[in-house]
Amino acid sequence: MTTTVLQNARIVDPSRDLDEIGTVIIVDGRIAAAGAEATNQGVPDGASVINCRDRLVIPGLIDSRVFIGEPGGEHRETIASASRAAAAGGVTSLIMMPDTDPVIDDIALVEFVLKTARDEALVRVHPSAAITKGLAGEEMTEFGLLAGAGAVALTDGRHTLSSSVVLRRALTYARDFNAVIACETQDRDLAGRGVMNEGLLASWLGLPGIPREAEIIPLERDMRLVGLTRGRYHAAKISVSDCADIVARGKDKGLDVTAGISINNLALNENDVGEYRTFFKTSPPLRAEDDRRAMVEALKTGTIDVISSSHDPQDVDTKRLPFADAEPGAIGLETLLAAALRLYHSDEVDLLRLIDALSTRPAKIFGLEGGTVRKGAQADIAIVDLNDPFVVAKDRIVSTSKNTPFEDARFQGRVLQTMVAGRTVFTID
Amino acid sequence: MPFPHRHLLGIKGLNEPDLIHLLDKADEAVKLSRQREKKSSTLRGLTQINLFFEASTRTQSSFELAGKRLGADVMNMAVGNSSVKKGETLIDTAMTLNAMRPDILVVRHSSAGATALLAQKVGCSVINAGDGAHEHPTQALLDALTIRRAKGRIGRLIVAICGDVLHSRVARSNIVLLNLMGARVRVVGPSTLMPSGIEQMGVEVFTSMEEGLKDADVVMMLRLQRERMAGAFVPSVREYFRFYGLDAEKLKRAKDDALVMHPGPMNRGVEIASEIADGPQSVIESQVEMGVAVRMAVMETLLLDGPDREAGR
């Protein structure tokens, strides 16, 4: 029996609405006790004790939107390297997108991911499966068999389903298996050749813009289809205020709808693109400051349920190009928590809601264990120094690809130690 | 006993005594069909035209045999490969045939409501042999006859209709008939194959076979058309079979003596496992026999007991 005791920790556990100084006792990978009341239980013989004075103990983060290069793009990121980056960022579970080569649209691929993760990954890696075969937007995949094999969500990843009837059937069919359909929305025609947020800045840069409506119109359609089918829908990456309004209306009507946002759209805005900096080319694009503020507000009220890193490794070949030709996407597993804590330090979002959006809510939506430091739960935990300032140094990036928009960014608050099932998978040096 | 209907366009519009009348008569037809001498002269001198706008070997043969056993002159019009291709409308075809003075028209068409439209334009009795996803009344009657002969009754039985309810005329006719006869009707299938408003059609709706088949007296499987298997309504054959195909494991949920039915033609390994289709609980072959009997009963009733009986035909 191995026992670990975390003493004097500030425990922030949104699953119990708890924020108090106390002790966490971990026995054989599970939480035996956590909270102020655990402080008087004493330390068993042979237990290893970690003093967490002035430190935060939170449930490990659950990143619901992570693109990985394996299989097919291992030079950008493997399941193993992504899991190391995750561990460094306090992320103990991640949901992997099906945009691989081959696409995760068959149980054999789900099994491949789970097997590779079991053998090589430091954190829990959950595959999602494509909604349509080959992400082509036409034929449904085998939702029932895929879910049975271990796919935790259905999503066409970067691809928006353009056919309303395909989405209607997918929502209807997924309902029978209680599966979530997660979608990014971007109207292909309206977005056209656009490469950044449409507006004055794009016009001065001479870059084709993506109007906000390219995201709004398909989301509005999707919400109507959710109303029609009563399916479960997760708007995976919204970035403009109108989309938050659409989600809020859906929730008011009692639809089974949730929303997520990429950390990039909370922490950055279109001005960061500066002089054609391709690491700031994302999808959805970084928006104007008004929209960013509106999204922070929507996060605060809970209209936006979860924050994801939208981790999307790209290498030099795809990023060292003229802005319009570069691939969108930014890595983010390692910086997810630090970037989110900016909203705490600026007094915009309180700590409980932030950790809820980074851990407890995604666990609930996708039916994963975790997101809690409740007694009996698996000990997936991050120990965090809330105030420690640091600068993101490129040479310290763990991820195989280095396309972070936060290079040289100053953050306050960093992950000191990460545990998965009580086993330490990351310690800061 | 007089029968108040001139046509049989659907089960909707009939009442319980009508159904009992037809089923009782069909029981007699079964007797006739099991004799060495199978031919009666009930409809001698009358003309039956089978007008099939949609190909069907099984139903058409069944109607043909039924007419012949009753002594009628039977003509088959395979419309699919003749005048319709040359641009003739449904009504034109009907008028042409009507001029040949048939006594009964048996019509199948791929469009819902087409049979009723045709019935308005001709001077004889019309039997709907299937119109689109609307009705297939003789199938529901033969199913009822099969159940009644095997179970002794229909009332209070739990009947689970499983599979592609959305596109099935067999399901619609059966739902109406079984409700009229007092059965408890369930439908079971993926939500993508359920018509909207199904829960208001007098059925209990299940999306899981395990739950839907629980304690069922009758398990009625529906055919899943090939073109609906590959990702449009259901993702694949193997997933459909895994969750909705009738195999021994799922059938265990039903009563031990539950009947297994299928309107044919079957897709073995898609909606039904071969061992079940050929197993002891299967009455699928019996359904075919009852089909001929029911069609004899329907034609005899419409022509001899219907409102046209005095019309001097």
Commentary on this structure:
The complex is a heterodimer of chains A (429) and B (313). Chain A is α/β, with parallel strands linked by helices and 429 residues long. Chain A is built from 13 helices and 18 strands. In chain A, strands 1, 2, 3, 4, 5, 16, 17 and 18 form an eight-stranded mixed β-sheet that branches. Chain A has a five-stranded parallel β-sheet with strand order 9-10-13-14-15. In chain A, strands 6-7-8 form a three-stranded parallel β-sheet. The radius of gyration of chain A is 21 Å and the shape is globular. In chain B, the strands form two sheets. In chain B, strands 7-6-5-8-9 form a five-stranded parallel β-sheet. The two termini of chain B are 19 Å apart. The relative contact order of chain B is 0.16. Classes of the chains: A alpha/beta (429), B alpha/beta (313).
Features of the shown structure:
heterodimer, A: alpha/beta, Urease, subunit C, domain 1, TIM Barrel, five-stranded parallel sheet, globular, B: 313 residues, alpha/beta
Short recap of the structure:
The complex is a heterodimer of chains A (429) and B (313). Chain A has helices at residues 79-88, 107-120, 143-149, 164-176, 188-191, 200-205, 213-229, 241-252, 263-267, 289-301, 316-319, 336-345, 351-366; strands at residues 3-13, 18-27, 30-35, 48-51, 56-59, 61-66, 91-96, 124-127, 154-155, 180-183, 196-197, 209-210, 232-235, 256-262, 306-308, 381-391, 410-420, 423-427.
